[in-house]
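User: Please go through the entry that follows and flag anything odd:
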Amino acid sequence: MRERPISTLPNLGPKTADWLAEVGISTEAELRALGPITAWQRLKAWQPEKITVNALYALHGALTNQHWASLTQELRAELRRDAGVE
């Protein structure tokens, strides 16, 4: 199976793909291997003022083929807890 560019994953565009590349995540396989929480933590450490919790939801949705806004409140709470977001 051919790997899709990160910018073509749901919820992610060219800007997010550029940001992910800045923190060492350049492929879909790398993103999947790290998972949304670690990827988000890297982004947050790199640009704490720019990266919001919505990026965490978007990363999870990208890997599960869901729009981030459709994630349940329970799943959002679990993601925030696992990511260490207050």
About this structure: The domain at 7-83 is CATH 1.10.150.20 (DNA polymerase; domain 1). The chain has a mean pLDDT of 94. The radius of gyration is 12 Å.
